[in-house]
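Consider the tokenized backbone below.
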């Protein structure tokens, strides 16, 4: 529990930071989110920081985001004065419905802590999307500069994450940065989410097929391999398809990101990158590269025994008649077999941790907790985003095309879990979504500005690298 004095101090500092830094607070927000899950356990375990202080610092990123969101609403109404893009409006409806559903669940006696957690998960993506859209519309040069800097920051964190994966001994975390104690005492997580003997999250335990490499999956400063996996997905795609410098530096950065992403053993992040890459190659008509990339997983599964064993675990019990949902594949079967027809999922079963069966599917999560309306609103958002970007992609700036690919990837990985609603791993992706949604608005307003040559305007639309 956060002590009022510490919480008040964090709020005042965040308020002052947003007042003076405005959109530059995105730097604080990203760095705070990316290092918090290892820095705070270290403070709590090794430095003896009090529970009140650590708990107050834990919510600092949410405080910054909420204050920045309110400021962006003011800027939009006072300076931009345009209707919000349709995808933002649709996502606003989705968030409003989820909020109302959580309110009814709370009034019906559901656990308040679970209601608050679901409210946080459902609302934070909209807040960040609005901040990103406002940044791209009001300060496009800063928005693109920040995107490049975020890319290189994540490359550095990938390198740090690989070192943290290989170098520390197996008892390092339980002795110096015990995430188990921190998670249970400060975050209020359930004990089953952690490994008490090793002091890490349950998701960080090493994959058995690759136990020869390291006892853990790589989680770096993110504190969780799932957050690290998706956090590294966006810079990997950006360096591959947007910032295409043909030099050894870009190759080295791509190598670091690829190793970091592989070391997380996050299958969903792998699939996300794979699907997005296939889509971009198809749209660019690079059919040779598309065929080569499509063959990579087939060859890898046939030649690398641990990878084949890794994949077999998810599919060996797959059956249309299977009633459980212990794996992602079985959760997908449940979704399309009975998830949409179960009467309990019309309005959802409430905000409990495990209403009936904890299905390994993000769509199943929406149905179980929020009902069919949430599912249809979410699908409407994805379709609206794709159409918005598809109809306005000029080809001069590759971010809209990348976002279209990420929308397809989002649709696919939501079959595995509710990853898009996680804060840390997905804020780079939501930022790119916001930047791409605002791009047509920025282009139109620029072209309407009189007494400016179209050549100069086109030049400003290019990234500083000059390569699209």
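A designed sequence for it:
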């Amino acid at each position: 529990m956060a002590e009022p004095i510490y919480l008040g101090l964090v709020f005042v500092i965040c308020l002052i930071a947003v007042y003076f830094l405005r959109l530059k607070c995105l730097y604080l927000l990203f760095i705070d989110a990316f290092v918090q899950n290892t820095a705070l356990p270290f403070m709590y375990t090794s430095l003896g920081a009090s529970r009140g202080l650590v708990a107050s610092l834990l919510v600092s990123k949410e405080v910054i985001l909420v204050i920045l969101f309110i400021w962006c609403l003011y800027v939009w109404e006072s300076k931009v004065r345009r209707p919000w893009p349709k995808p933002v409006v649709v996502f606003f409806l989705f968030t409003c419905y989820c909020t109302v559903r959580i309110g009814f669940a709370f009034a019906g006696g559901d656990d308040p802590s679970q209601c608050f957690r679901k409210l946080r998960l459902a609302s934070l993506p909209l807040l960040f999307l609005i901040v990103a859209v406002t940044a791209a519309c009001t300060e496009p040069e800063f928005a693109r500069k920040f995107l490049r800097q975020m890319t290189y920051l994540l490359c550095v964190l990938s390198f740090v994450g690989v070192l943290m994966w290989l170098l520390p001994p197996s008892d390092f975390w339980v002795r110096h940065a015990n995430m188990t104690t921190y998670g249970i005492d400060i975050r209020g997580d359930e004990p089953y989410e952690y490994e008490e003997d090793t002091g890490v999250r349950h998701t960080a335990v090493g994959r058995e097929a690759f136990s020869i490499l390291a006892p853990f999956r790589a989680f770096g400063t993110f504190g969780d391999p799932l957050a690290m996996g998706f956090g590294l997905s966006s810079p990997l795609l950006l360096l591959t398809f947007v910032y295409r410098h043909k030099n050894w530096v870009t190759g080295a950065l791509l190598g670091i990101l690829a190793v970091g992403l592989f070391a997380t053993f996050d299958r969903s992040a792998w699939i996300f990158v794979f699907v997005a890459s296939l889509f971009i190659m198809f749209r660019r008509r690079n059919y040779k590269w598309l065929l080569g990339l499509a063959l990579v997983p087939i060859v890898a599964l046939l030649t690398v025994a641990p990878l084949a064993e890794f994949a077999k675990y998810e599919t060996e019990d797959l059956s249309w008649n299977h009633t459980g949902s212990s794996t992602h594949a079985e959760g997908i079967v449940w979704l399309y077999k009975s998830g949409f027809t179960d009467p309990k999922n019309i309005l959802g079963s409430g905000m409990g941790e495990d209403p009936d069966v904890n299905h390994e599917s993000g769509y199943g999560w929406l149905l179980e907790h929020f009902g069919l309306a949430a599912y249809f609103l979410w699908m409407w958002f994805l379709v609206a985003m794709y159409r918005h970007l598809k109809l306005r992609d000029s080809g001069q700036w590759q971010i809209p095309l990348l976002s279209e690919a990420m929308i397809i990837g989002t649709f696919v990985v939501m079959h595995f879990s509710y990853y898009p609603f996680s804060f840390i791993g997905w804020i780079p992706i939501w930022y790119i979504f916001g930047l791409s949604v605002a791009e047509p608005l920025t282009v139109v307003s620029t072209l309407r500005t009189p007494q400016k040559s179209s050549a100069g305007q086109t030049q400003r639309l290019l990234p500083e690298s000059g390569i699209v």
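The longest helix spans residues 112-138.
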